[in-house]
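User: I'm writing a tutorial on reading structure tokens. Could you give me a worked example: one chain, its sequence, then its tokens, then a sentence or two explaining what the tokens reveal?
Assistant: Sure. Here is the example chain.
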Amino acid sequence: MLAGWALALVLGCGDGTKPDTGDVSSTVTDTDTDTDTDTDTDTDSDTDADADTDTDSDTDTDTGTSAPLSFTATCAPDPVNVLRASCSIDAAEVADWEVVFTAGADSLVFPVEALQAGDVPVWGLLADTRWTWSVHPVGRSGESSGDFLTGPLPEGARAEFVLSGVASFDFFGFSFGCDGATLMLVADTRGRVRWYEDFAPLTGAPVFGRMVRGFRDTGEGSWLVTVGGEWIFEIGFDGTVRRRLSLRDGDFDQPIHHDLGSWNGLLYAVFAEEVEGPEGAPMIVDGLYVWDEEGTRHTIHLADVVSLEPPSGPVGGYWTPWFGFGVWDHTHTNAITVDPEGNATLSIHSQDSLIQLRADPTSADFGSLSWTAVGGSSRAFTSTLDEGPSSFASGFAGQHHVEVLPDGRYSLFDNRSQPSSRVLVLDIDPEGGLWTIEEEYVLDALCPGQSSGFFVESGALVATCANMRTLFEYSAGGGPLAWTAEASCARGLSLAEPFIYRAQPVQLLP
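And here are its predicted structure tokens:
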């Protein structure tokens, strides 16, 4: 934290009453026949040496917007989720629309194209806040407006933050929970919860502790989320469940690991499975499920492409509830990123390694191993790439969150190779046979588990130290610390899980 300029924000406290729906409807038949006739007869009598005879006689017959549109519109809070709402429009003809919500300095604009009648979802509201809404057709006269009061956040979503500095981005998503529940949340960088999803109603079972550990912004207005190793959801920011896969329903047959990915309409999920290793040793060796747009599942088993000898990694631990004691967690794949060519790069935690697989199921070499980069001490893996020369400390260990960057390089959260954790930028050159550390961002903390590093549009790095429950923004190019946010539960509520896993910057609003 940067001393002397911390601000504590407590969010979501309410009296538990139902939201006031206020004025939620209006009927508009606009008869405005704006007949403004501009009679400007400005006659320029310029008498300088030139022979300017300009006699500008502008006769403006502007009649304002096009013909008025008759319509009705109503907006009301969502009955289940207090940070969402819905607006219903019924018009005499098809039009483009703007739905606007304002509360003080906060303003949300939801554009709608080519709609005559239907519902418009709204999200990103604030709890316990009176919002004024308006609906108007674009390029046509007329407006419908009203207001309502949102209700209090559910207890599980009542996060609070201690902030310092000013962020260069607007929103971040993370899994979090208070008083026994674990939810998916999005907060703004002012420390206010702006979106949440409680997965208990969607799974039909309690969701708590570490059950929400893998999630990804799709870039298409939705999150991919794993819950308890048994469910995969794609949930829209508007609350629509776009996809639901379940182990219980037979959509897959092995528990889902830490991370998810998407590319070209495909959904990727890392899974764990027990295999028989050398001399009958029980081992957990992971794999990759790939679902195409038709719902067909394709599978890569890492046991077919990586070395199993000698069995290594921790025994039991994370997967004990699934596979029991005495099983080697040989790979512990904790991150996936998919590049524009359909190559999946995986972080293999137990072997301090990165590997890349061909992961396009339409490719003839689907599932083949492209390269291996060992950053620390691996008992079973052999690196096919050498570490190139660098001015930074060499290697990586206990790593999490690998991410392919727009320029083709990779970011990697190096948890434990140095006294303080760091985020690295790697150039990986399979043709040259090298991987090289080109940049580093050092956190003033050791973050042994999970954690992440994402670059935002400004070029700044946003890193999460999971065990500190803190986000850090470092200025572009390795500059100074610009912003921090430390999360906890609102006063009187206990943490459901004492970590923040891989908080991710996200563009929440249209």
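What the tokens reveal: Helices lie at 200-203, 320-323. The domain at 156-505 is CATH 2.120.10.30 (Neuraminidase).
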